[in-house]
TrEMBL record:
The chain crosses the membrane at residues 73-97, 109-127, 147-167, 179-198, 240-262. The keyword GTP-binding does not apply. This is Putative cobalt transporter subunit CbtA. It comes from Motilibacter rhizosphaerae. Pfam families: CbtA. The lineage of its organism: Bacteria, Bacillati, Actinomycetota, Actinomycetes, Motilibacterales. Keywords: Membrane, Transmembrane, Transmembrane helix. The keyword Lipid biosynthesis does not apply.
């Protein structure tokens, strides 16, 4: 039965990835194009300033893949593979939790797990390290940014698992409502401390040396030797819209995953003759 759940989780994950890709392709891709144009124009302005100051000028390297391939095949494959991975992990989590988290019905469990996945895997890490268009960011900080983001994902996801387990233990003594309030507050405190301890991307060494200390890596205005702005900072409206669409794409992915997996899983359970809230044996075969 667990293999059937995994197969359906992977299938729904692929569908969720495709839906999220179409959403991002229509709404976010034009913003990425503008970000690429901004980056090129900013590099030209920086090169002009460097030449005027007698400094060496870095030459631009051509991309291996064209923008058309990156915007369609590249991002599409990436998002679908992400959906496949999340769908498979989602099915594993579903099989582990079914019958072990109280009397939650199969369909409700699917929706709760999807909500938890969206919050833990994406929303909480996003609040600390919000998404930027691919061309916006310091190339020397890619590894640091990736490591910090991974730490946030692990802490946020593991924290949700611990909070759910603690809430289940507290519920008989405090009642469901009070136990939920206590665990949510505890989760927020832990996440708040972690966010306060981890550095913002603008505080990374390479950024501080080159641009000064800022909250994010969003490109600031370029100034000449006299302090006059010769090239503007990255448009705030474009950044806001890109981040909004990024949240929308992830919300769509997890919604499709939770809603789509629920009836398929329930059908598998009925076909297997399992009780609606009976635990599923999860083993590596």
């Amino acid at each position: 039965m667990e293999r059937q759940l995994l197969a359906r989780g992977a299938l729904v994950g692929i569908v969720a990835g495709l839906v999220a890709f179409v959403f991002a392709r229509v709404l976010a891709e034009p913003l990425i194009d503008r970000a690429v144009d901004y980056e090129s124009a900013r590099d030209d302005a920086q090169a002009a300033l460097d030449r005027a100051a007698g400094l060496p000028v870095e030459h631009e390297h051509a991309d291996i893949f064209s923008r058309g391939i990156q915007a369609n095949l590249g991002i599409g494959v990436g998002v679908v593979l992400f959906g496949l991975a999340m769908g498979t992990l989602f099915a594993v989590a579903y099989a582990v939790c079914l019958g072990r988290v109280g009397g939650v019905r199969p369909r409700s469990l699917s929706l709760l797990l999807a909500a938890g996945g969206f919050v833990g895997v994406y929303l909480v890490p996003f609040l600390k390290y919000p998404a930027n268009p691919p061309s916006i960011g310091h190339e020397d900080t890619i590894q640091q940014r990736s490591a910090l983001y991974l730490v946030m994902v692990l802490v946020a996801t593991f924290g949700l698992v611990v909070a759910a387990a603690v809430g289940q233990q507290l519920a008989p003594r405090l009642g469901t409502w009070n136990a939920t309030v206590v665990t949510v507050l505890g989760y927020l405190v832990v996440i708040g401390v972690v966010m306060a301890v981890l550095p913002s991307t603008g505080e990374l060494g390479a950024n501080v040396r080159e641009y000064g200390r800022h909250a994010t890596e969003t490109p600031q205005p370029l100034r000449d030797g006299g302090g006059r702005i010769v090239f503007p900072g990255f448009p705030a409206d474009d950044m806001f819209a890109f981040r909004l669409y990024s949240v929308g794409a992830q919300l769509l992915l997890w919604t499709v995953l939770g809603v789509g997996f629920a009836p398929l899983a329930e059908r598998v359970l009925r076909r297997g003759g399992a009780a609606p809230t009976a635990p599923v044996s999860v083993s590596a075969r």
